[in-house]
Amino acid sequence: MSENTITATDQTFKDLIAGSTPVLVDFWAEWCGPCRMIAPAIEEIAGQYAGTLRVAKLNVDENPQTAGTYDVMSIPTLIVYQNGEPKKRIVGAMPKVKLLAELAPFLS
Q1: By the 8 A CB rule, do 88 and 23 touch?
Q2: Do the beta carbons of residue 57 and residue 43 sit within 8 Å?
Q3: 35 catalytic, yes or no?
Q4: CATH number for the 5-103 domain, one of 3.30.70.260, 1.20.1530.20, 1.10.150.530, 3.40.30.10?
Q5: I want to staple 35 with a disulfide (CB 3.0 to 4.6 A). Which of 14, 39, 76, 81 is the partner?
Q6: From the first residue on, what is the mean pLDDT of each consecutive set of 10 residues in the chain (108 residues)?
Q7: Rounded to an integer, what distance in angstroms lies between the CA atom of residue 108 and that of residue 9?
């Protein structure tokens, strides 16, 4: 993790997603190859859009309650939350350019 990403847990999740600033949550696990593939792009986006978009990572093996609550069935799953509600779900690895296109509504 970098200084621009937040480590989310079952205990901190509700407070993390409560604000009006969009929060991109990366649901991942250590053993997940595609999760490791997109991690550098997620880190870059976190730095590039600091102040506009908050970025958090939630390890699904360590925090199964939150993953279950939001029906995360496969990883990587990225969900954008705003005001405590899920606004956008992205499942699977993709290049940074495509990821930015998916996130565009939240980056202005």
Answers
A1: no
A2: no
A3: yes
A4: 3.40.30.10
A5: 76
A6: 87 96 97 97 95 96 97 97 97 96 94
A7: 27
From 32, 42, 90, 94, active-site residue: 32
Q: What is the pLDDT of residue 105?
A: 96
CA dihedral sign, ordered 103, 8, 89, 33: positive
DSSP 105: G
Strands 77-82, 23-28: pairing kind: antiparallel
Which of 67, 76, 23 is closest to 45 using CA atoms? 23
Tens of pLDDT, residues 12-27: 999 999 999 999 999 9
Residue 51 token pair? 């102040």
Catalytic residue among 8, 35, 42, 94: 35
Alpha helices in the chain (DSSP H): 13-16, 33-48, 64-69, 96-103
